[in-house]
Amino acid sequence: MAEQEALNILISSTDESSVWYYNIVGSHFQYVKHRIDELDQDNYVCKYTMIEGDALGDKLESIGYEVKFEAASDGSSICKMTSNYNTIGEAEVKEEEIIAGKNSAMGIYKIRSNCIV
Q: What pTM did the predictor assign?
């Protein structure tokens, strides 16, 4: 039986910022650390940056994310996510790597949602 993916989440907050550390069990990535840059509860927008973790590899300094939730016409929600990859030096990130990163980020969202619900 395959090991189930799970998150161990450590949240560190000050008046100026929050850092979320995820230890990922059952994934090919061991951990990621996100810094919450902006949380706009009125407009349902969260901006955060992956500042540490093996998902950054040797090409990326950080990845900035903007997640926005919008109302759909059927009463559900639409989640829009924009990513900004900040490379180390002149490193090039291939499209396949971006797609793999997106899929991995969505996996973290799904696991995190299961932990919260």
A: 0.72
Cα 76 from Cα 57, distance rounded (Å): 36
Residue pair 78/72 in contact (Cβ under 8 Å)? The answer is: yes
Q: 51 near 35, Cβ under 8 Å?
A: yes
Burial (0-12, 13-18, 19+ Cβ within 10 Å), 45? middle
Q: Bridge-partner residues for 31, per DSSP? A: 23
What is the spatial distance between Cα 109 and Cα 115, in angstroms, rounded to a whole number?
Answer: 10
HSE of 40, CA atoms in CB hemisphere, 13 A = 11
CA 96 to chain centre: 18
Condensed to tens digits (0 to 9), the pLDDT of residues 54-86 reads 888 899 999 999 989 999 999 998 888 898 999
| Strand pairing category for 60-71 and 6-13 | unpaired
